[in-house]
Specification:
Strand order of the largest sheet: 3-2-1-4
Radius of gyration: 14 Å
Mean pLDDT: 91
Low-confidence stretches: 140-145
Number of domains: 1
Bound molecules: FE2/S2 (inorganic) cluster
Number of helices: 5
Order of helices and strands: HEEEHHHHE
Strand content: 15-25%
CATH class: Alpha Beta
CATH topology: Sufe protein. Chain: A
């Protein structure tokens, strides 16, 4: 079996939603300390719905494919639904990732959450902090930049 599914290769070679958004409503940037890869997600939010989303990922192919898929999944979702999207769902939508590449999809989940948290912070919206990754930069593998 090939290491990467056709869907992964498609999203890697033809990533959706690449770029940035001018005057975004929320921006999330996360990095993986081990591999040094960085993912940034921009959100446009209208009436509690993610009306547009773009990403910039400086990282491996799996991270790019995961960002592309995650942005496709959350576009049009309510913020609450987007917060419930897990890296596992992103991996499933990609048809799987090799085990040693699963952490790349974690970046996508964390970047989305970080962008929503930024939106909440900018607008003074109260939230349950436990919904968001918060390792304070101490985590071995992943941390908020
Ligand atoms: Fe760094 Fe994939 S190897 S995110």
């Amino acid at each position: 079996m090939a290491l990467y599914t056709e869907t992964v290769m498609d999203h890697f070679t033809n990533p959706r939603n690449v770029g940035s958004i001018e005057n975004p409503d929320g921006v999330g940037e996360v990095g993986n300390a081990k591999c040094g890869d960085i993912m940034k997600i921009y959100l446009k939010i209208d009436d509690n719905v993610i009306s547009d989303v773009k990403f910039e990922t400086f990282g491996c192919g799996s991270a790019i494919a995961s960002s592309s898929m995650a942005t496709e999944m959350i576009k049009g979702m309510t913020i609450e639904d987007a917060l419930n999207v897990t890296n596992k769902q992103v991996v499933e939508a990609l048809g799987g990732l090799p085990p040693h590449k699963l952490h790349c999809s974690v970046l996508a989940e964390e970047a989305v959450k970080s962008a929503v948290k930024d939106y909440y912070d900018r607008n003074g919206i109260e939230y349950d902090a436990s919904q968001f990754p918060d390792c304070g930069g101490d985590c071995e593998s992943c941390h908020m930049v």
